[in-house]
Amino acid sequence: SSGINAEYGMTARFTSCIPQSTSMSKLLRSEEMNLVQIFLSQEASYNCIRELGELGAVQFSDLNEGVNAFSRNYVSEIRRTEEMERRLRFFAAEIEKEKLPVPADYNVPAAPNQKDLIDLEATLEQLEGETRQINANQEALLRNFYELKELKHVLKSASAFFQEGKTIQKEDLAAKRAASRFDEEAGKVSRHLSFLCGVINRSKIPVFERVLWRASRGKALLRYLDIDEVLKDPATEEEIPKSTFIVYFQGEQLKMRVKKICEGLGATTYPCKEDWEERRHTEEEVDKRLGELTNILNETKNHRFRMLTTVVSSINSWIIQVRKVKAIYYTMNKFKKTETGLLHAEGWCPKCQLNDVDRALKRGATSAGSATQPILNTVTTKRTPPTYHQTNKLTRGYQAIIDAYGVASYQEINPAIFTIITFPFLFGIMFGDIGHGFIMFVAGLYLCLKENYFLKRLKSYEEIFLMMFHGRYIIMMNGLFAVYAGFLYNDIFAKSVDIFGSAWNADLPESTKVSATGHYGLDPWPPGAQYSGDPYLFGVDPFWNLAENKLTFINSYKMKLAVILGLVQMTFGLVLSLYNYRFKGKTLDVYCTFIPQMIFLQCIIGYLVFMIFFKWFTVDARSDSQPALLIALINMFLNFAGEIPKEQHLYANQRYIQAALVVIAVVCVPWMFGAKPLVEHLYPRVRQASYQQFENEEDEEEEEEEHGTMDMMVHQGIETIEFTLGCISNTASYLRLWALSLAHAELSEVLWDMVMKAGLGLDINKYVNPIGLVIAFAFWACLTVAILIVMEGLSAFLHALRLHWVEFQKKFYLGEGYLFAPFSFTRMLNGEDDEQ
Amino acid sequence: IRVCKTTYKQWYQRRVRGMRFCGPKSSTCLFLLSVWGTIMLLLLGVFFQTESVILYSDIGYDPNRWQSAANSCYIAGGIYLVIGVISFWQKIVNDRYQALEPETTTIMF
């Protein structure tokens, strides 16, 4: 149970979850969950929870909810782990100070057992004590060192001071004789002035001077010299500029005052002899001491370095172990103590993993040497279980983007399974370029092939790259489908490729009259001359790339494609709602919600799609009537059963069929709105019966609020309005498939025309042309990647996602569940656990 | 003495592993760009030489310009091939440098 990597661990664990019944596939609906009760003996509890943490299959409920954090059972153990964490943080700070490189070790250690935990605690305590002692010693030594250095500087500058001092002495004596009023004093004036020398911070010198002047009434003299060598404060290691100073004064009183001032301003005084010989002698001694101290300091530094190096190699592993232990005790705090001395735990567990949990508990009990075996009970409950989808590395990304909008309710159909293909497909429709799609595919492929390398080092990447990495399979599929759509639109870097032979022919005879604007129209009829009659085999004919009216044609085609795709996806969503109703046994909903919704959707948008296909098959450039489909749809309602003008005629008896469709659609609205509340009002037993059919469903009598008929009608009314208005607005929303592909194609074309065309069309001389082309290509490539792939890719991703979240899921998805959050070490280490 | 030590180390590294003037990221970017450039420009040159219709909007009617555009595409493709080889060499040198530095992480709480 050691070294389980995040993603691999999750795949390895689920091998026991083979579906028992083939009708329930893994990802279609969330797993069946059971509420389990576990009874553990005290001595086995730590090991059992440790095993469960590695397994990650149980989501524990907090049985001690009202209890204060400080009065729980295992508070003292948690305090001990926090003390260990504090020690580890201390080591981290010391390592940071020394700037030691931390060797990378990607193995995840297992949580220690209780004996190893005590050993770890002792090791950390001892190491911390040693380190603190070394630090204290070093500080004291440094303090001594700097004091000796200051003394050396004082001794050096003393000679300079004394030179000055002799002249001052002479001047001062003369002044004193002149100014002295008392003969006694004049007689008692000694030939020498007293002095005091030392070292002071440079910043404090002005203050020092002023205070001395005031205190001595001008009779003390201060001289100072800056110290060149930078001295550091031993405790904080900051550099403080200092100066040596000397104060001349007379008399004992002044001496006391000066000493007090020095103390007050943090200046240190050093004894200094006037005699030059003695000073030299002291200086030599100081030098010797400094040499000894330097050696001792270096040895201390080396010792500290060696200690920290031994710590550095295991510190990450210790941190992980301590975090795991803390998680175990936090979990154990959720358990209740029974009267018999057992611990009682409760939690959710997927049904397919019950055996795994049982085995893990037995393993834990045996490793703890406990006599009593842990007991695992399944309990029936009324609470809604959490939603748990089993995913592998491919499906995890898709499940994540679906869960971002709303987690599936317990055991409803999971849209993520369909999203695996529909999302890249819609993305491709909006992106649609062979070249850009290929680059995206290659990028995704690279991330997928090198995923082991990235998975090991996940924590060392920034968030944006991590987002792209977790979506690597999505990116790869998107690129693949974009290449397919690129073949459909016949668009590679804004140019078309002619693979199957174009059906158009622009070889004009010499005598052709070109119009005044320089345009010439190619006529598709009769076939054979300019249009061969056999359309291009797959995709848009490459000739359209050169046509002036390319957009007119392509826009119509893409818009119709968007509406068709929209109808298909929305119908599919409605059908999924049918499956959901049948799974929950809500037959009333089938007849009163699903059927009218389906009929309404098909009568309006289904009919529009039918008209699109009919027009494609029957109408061409030669036809008399070229009906506009949207006008037809609008007039279906506004000009109800009215005469259809000849140019808008699509098929025989169109007015009557359209009138019938409108009538059916309008009838569906009150059906959607009123049928269900009416039936539930008249036959309340129907409501109860439909709920009983669902196996695990709780008895809804107590939990169900009093649904009056009015409440039901309001609810149904809101749903009806949402659905009917949504039919039109959601279909129109699918037109973004057209809009984004148009934007992409246009941007791509503009980029080529502005950048590459300039490079290709350079005509200066044959040496400069290639250089210009090299530069133009570099620009074009960078802008293609930055704008067309990254920016447009993100945009298409977002819009495809929105189409799924809103237009598709509104038809069937409830999304009111909560995620299964098991107690798992890998989840906690990845930061997915939001309890602590 | 310290200054001398660093330059000696650099000189030694250069002798053993090869000189590098691009970092790991820029050599990879330049390599990918030149692979793309080589393939695309050589293909474009072929399309210009065969006077493919799609490229009409870039060049126009004059047949001389088609050939000169094809030539400049080939030469530009060749230049990108050279750049590609240089950046691939730089990638190899960068890999050698990286192999010798042990991988380090940070302390993560």
Structural features, described:
The complex is a heterodimer of chains A (about 850) and B (about 110). Chain A has about 850 residues and is of the alpha+beta class. Helix content of chain A is about 60%, strand content about 5%. In chain A, the strands form 3 sheets. In chain A, strands 1, 2, 10, 11 and 12 form a 5-stranded antiparallel β-sheet that branches. In chain A, strands 5-8-4-9 form a 4-stranded antiparallel β-sheet, sandwiched between helices. In chain A, strands 6-7 form a two-stranded antiparallel sheet. Chain B has about 110 residues and is mainly α. Helix content of chain B is about 75%, strand content about 0%. Chain B is built from 4 helices and 1 strand; from the N terminus they run ααααβ. The two termini of chain B are about 40 Å apart. Classes of the chains: A alpha+beta (about 850), B mainly alpha (about 110).
Keywords:
heterodimer, A: 836 residues, alpha+beta, five-stranded antiparallel sheet, four-stranded antiparallel sheet, 12 strands, extended, disordered N terminus, B: 109 residues, mainly alpha, 77% helix, 2% strand, elongated
Runs of chain B in which pLDDT lies below 50 for 5 or more consecutive residues are none
**Unreliable stretches covering 5 or more consecutive residues of chain A:** 1-16, 18-24, 181-191, 689-706
* Biggest interface: A-B, 43 and 32 residues
User: What level of helicity do the residues of chain B show?
Assistant: over 70%
Number of helices of chain A: 25
What fraction strand of chain A?
A: 5-15%
- Computed Rg of chain B: 22 Å
Termini separation of chain A comes to: 24 Å
Structural class of chain A: alpha+beta
Layout of secondary structure:
The complex is a heterodimer of chains A (836) and B (109).
Chain A: H1 6-13, E1 33-41, H2 42-55, E2 59-60, H3 75-98, E3 102-103, H4 114-179, H5 183-188, E4 194-201, H6 205-216, E5 221-226, E6 231-232, E7 239-240, E8 242-249, H7 252-264, E9 268-270, H8 276-332, E10 336-337, E11 342-350, H9 354-368, E12 375-379, H10 395-403, H11 416-431, H12 434-449, H13 451-456, H14 463-470, H15 472-489, H16 550-584, H17 587-618, H18 629-638, H19 654-682, H20 684-692, H21 700-703, H22 709-733, H23 736-760, H24 768-808, H25 825-829
Antiparallel strand pairs in A: 1-11, 1-12, 2-11, 4-8, 4-9, 5-8, 6-7, 10-11
Helix pairs in contact in A: 2-8, 2-9, 3-4, 3-8, 4-8, 6-7, 10-11, 11-15, 11-23, 11-24, 12-15, 12-24, 16-17, 16-23, 17-19, 17-22, 19-20, 19-22, 23-24
Chain B: H1 2-17, H2 24-49, H3 56-59, H4 63-100, E1 104-105
